[in-house]
Amino acid sequence: MSFAAIALEEKQRVLAELGEVKRLLSSRGLFAGTSGNLSIRVGDFVPESFDFAITASGKDKSLSTPEDFLFVDQDGKPSEATALKPSAETLIHCEIYKLTGCGAIFHVHTVMNNVISELFWDRKSIPVDGVELIKAFQIWEEEAHIEIPIVSNFAHIPSIVPEVTDRLDPRIPGIVLRKHGIYAWGANAFEAKRHLEAFEFLFEYAYRWEMLQQNRRS
Ligand SMILES: CSC[C@@H](O)[C@@H](O)C(=O)COP(=O)(O)O
Ligand SMILES: [Zn+2]
After folding, report:
1. pLDDT tens digits, one per residue of 172-196
2. 138 CB less than 6 Å from ligand 1?
3. Binding site membership of 2 for ligand 1 (Cβ less than 6 Å)
4. What is the b/e burial string over 14-46, where b = at least 16 CB atoms within 10 angstroms of the residue's CB?
5. Is the ipTM of this complex over 0.85?
6. Is 164 left (phi over 0), alpha (psi -120 to 50) or beta?
7. 195 is in an annotated binding site
């Protein structure tokens, strides 16, 4: 489906939803120093051809302005003429949409997601055992064990993409960039937000549990 063929109401709905999520996450202090980016897909999904609304690059994400978002295509190119620049990390969003067909992707930097990525960097994943909130990912096994992938954080964003392709686990709706932040996604904004919240909870649990065990050993 071409971008022009997508109903105006659908585009407006997506922009309004993105604005709401941005306000809510901002009220929780999740966009420190202009960090973070958010996107929601619009229209039908075909891996070779889709569009999504994404935050413009470098903006103060605690403010709401008419220049907060723009639409881009599957390659991260603006879907229509605009003076706005898409997020510097748009190519990571493109890759996650292509691999998963999801409907929304939220990226935030938190001290906890940075610390945990370094704590478990040698392992290249964050292990979590049997915590109830794993069910937020629709993983219902008793005492489920999950590993949340961690990938390198290169300054050159296109170099991060192949690692995302390689490491993305279809069971786990998130991936952590080393000492950078998390990308969490879902079928829609509601799911992506639920996943983001669950990841941050699990990171704090994993960090505290690891510290407790290290204290016991010493
Ligand atoms: C200013 S620090 C954060 C950026 O380097 C980046 O990681 C980020 O999350 C926001 O970039 P943006 O281009 O605004 O989407
Ligand atoms: Zn970032």
Report:
1. 999 999 999 999 999 999 999 999 9
2. no
3. no
4. bbebbeebbeebbeeebbeeeebbbbbbbbebe
5. yes
6. alpha
7. no
pLDDT at 213 over 90: yes
pLDDT at 1 exceeding the cut of 90:
no
Centre of ligand 2 from the C-alpha of residue 182, in Å: 8
Q: How many domains does the chain have?
A: 1
115-122: long-range pairs with CB below 8 Å, 24+? 115/207, 116/176, 116/203, 116/206, 116/207, 117/150, 117/176, 117/177, 117/178, 117/179, 117/180, 118/178, 118/179, 119/207, 119/210, 120/150, 120/206, 121/150, 121/178
- Identity (one letter) of the amino acid at 19? G
Domain of 183: which CATH number? Answer: 3.40.225.10
Q: Would the CB of 36 count as within 6 Å of ligand 1?
A: yes
Q: What's the rounded mean pLDDT across residues 59-64?
A: 97
Q: Which amino acid is at 12?
A: Q
* pTM beyond cutoff 0.80: yes
Domain carrying residue 15 = 3-217
